[in-house]
Amino acid sequence: MTKTLKIVPRHQIDSIAWDACVAASPQRMLYGYSWYLDAVLPAPTWKWVGIISIDESGRYRAIMPVPLRRKVIAGITYEWVVHQPFFCQFLDVFSPDGSVDSSPFFQLTIEQFRYGSVFCTRSQSNKLSDIGPTEQLTTHILDLSADYKTIYQNYSHDRKLNLRRARHEFNAVANWTIVESGDPEPLLTLFRQHHAETIDGGVADWAYAIFRKLTNELSKRGLVTLRYAQHDGQLEAGALFVCEGNRIIYLFNAASEIGRKANARTLLIDQLIQEKAGQSFVFDFESPAKPSIQAFYQSFGATEEPFGMMRWNRLTFIERVLLKLKNRF
Questions:
Q1: Whole-angstrom Cα distance, residue 36 to residue 263?
Q2: What is the bridge-based pairing of β-strands 282-284 and 247-255?
Q3: What superfamily in CATH does domain 2-138+307-328 come from?
């Protein structure tokens, strides 16, 4: 089937047809839309291409985005390599046709690009094992179709206790309020001041620029909910949620020490769960592979949803040595 697939550069992709294919597919997710990919993969360092299967009438039958990043090794500009961008947990093959085999899309990707730094796909690792080495990762999701009382009963004992403390703190003890906002800058400030230094290698300025561009695109489409916990006029915690289709994504958050002690993020998450409970939504915590954070999300009754991660390397010996040297120094 790989012979019937085409790798199409971004400027030749019909964005309307592409986005319609994503929206009509069972695999529908925010990360697959062309405008979303444009936001998280800005030129000149990033770009994306599409692998497309076109039916007899010329319509997009199935599509898969491939995110690419330019690598520079020992001062030499290297070819484009497959690399998962920030704010894009996983991708997939999108098709309204449930019978489409996704394997040839991944196979062609590996054949076309010699180096895959990391490529995350919603397809589970056991379905990709015949194509190449894969690893299984998980996010954590919470089904919101039940009423809030039922969902709350599945909170852990500690989560219920901390939620009661947060409600008491916000309603009775201190001057706390929850505010809705369209400004992501305080959230980025909280992250810079209280989280960035805990990340290996730090966080580059370009990552913040991508987030600003992305939140602007999300806001234009009415997909984002941004809330802050405010204490005595000072913003101490924030959470940004994105709702598209039937999936709500906990895309970004940050809190000061005061916000953490007051369990502000627990309150912000619980507030949104209350509002969406009883509807056909899945809440995706977008959990990283960090046990303490995963335990926090599981305390809301969230369950694991697996996805696959692929890596491959067909570089020459000299290229591998240069890459190792670059990564080391």
A1: 31
A2: parallel
A3: Gcn5-related N-acetyltransferase (GNAT) (3.40.630.30)
